[in-house]
Amino acid sequence: LDADELRAEEPAVRAALGALLVPGGHVDPRRLLTALKAACSSLGVELRYQAAVEGLQPGEVVSGGVTTAYDEVVLASGAWTPALARLAGIDLAGEPVKGQLIRFQVADGRLHSFIHSHHAYLVPRAGAGLVVGSTMVIAGFDRSQDAMAIDRLANQARLLIPSLADAPIAETWTGLRPRLEGGRPVIGRLESGLLLATGHFRNGILLAPITAEIIAALVAGAAAPAVADPFAWHDRQRQARTP
Is residue 73 part of a domain? Predict the structure, then answer.
């Protein structure tokens, strides 16, 4: 799109000479998780929160001093997965990457599409304003907020959409992305009774459906889809041994 075509699509966007229009959509992660929890509860899934894990082996988890046996254990704990994997003697090299985001309180309709620029992205949330992200900072598990980084995000958003100049910032927050060495996730079976689904970095929600399909197939005793092969643990081990 040239500048005129872009403004026809998104009248609020000003500081851009053009754009690439890619058909697609976006998902509100908070609403998705609320729906997921409701679906799990309706199926009788027991959800435990703030349950520390002190020990872990294939088919076995120790939490609160109690050892419980399971047919399968799936390690899918985001940035905390490498630490849990070490309990089972698995060396999973990775680190959390902190991302900071802000949310402008604006009425629906200010922006209709996901906008991605060199310095920020903007996502409209129905009934919840406009989300702007995101930074990438290597800082361990530190989730403190950097006021200067928040200001930079806000200024980038206002540069693209000048009408945000008077819009209040309703919320700021941070998250920790799970990035593994090599940049690719690991999805699949490590050994009998133990599966892994982690390292999705910035694409956790995007890759959640195919990840669930792969893990569900393996738990049910079926073969994983062929698309899972590059993300299997044995493939990562093979690459690690390749000079």
Answer: yes
- For residue 3, being part of any structural domain is answered with no
What's the CA gap between 81 and 60, in Å, rounded? 16
Domain boundary among 178, 198, 226: 178
Question: Dihedral, CA atoms, 218, 220, 222, 228, nearest 10 degrees?
Answer: -30
Q: Are residues 160 and 220 in the same domain?
A: no
The 3-class secondary structure across 52-105, one letter per residue, is: CEEEEECCEEEECCEEEECCCEEECCHHHHHHHHHHCCCCCCEEEEEEEEEEEC
Contact 160, 16 (CB under 8 A): yes
Find the domain containing 118 and state its range. 95-178
Same domain, 158 and 190: no
Q: Is the dihedral of CA 35, 222, 224, 87 positive or negative?
A: positive
Helix (H, G, I), strand (E, B) or coil at 223: coil
Please give the residue that has the higher pLDDT: either 200 or 16.
200
Q: Is the peptide bond before 134 cis (omega within 30 degrees of 0)?
A: yes
Residue 241 pLDDT level (bands cut at 50, 70, 90): very low
Flag whether 8 is in a domain: no
Residue-level length of the chain: 243
Residue with tokens 């081990």: 237
End of a domain among 151, 178, 205? 178
Count of domains for the chain: 2
Question: pTM score, two decimals?
Answer: 0.87
Rounded Cα gap, residues 159 and 163, in angstroms: 9
- Cα 135 vs. chain centroid, distance in angstroms? 14
Q: How confident is the model at residue 20 (pLDDT cuts 50, 70, 90)?
A: confident
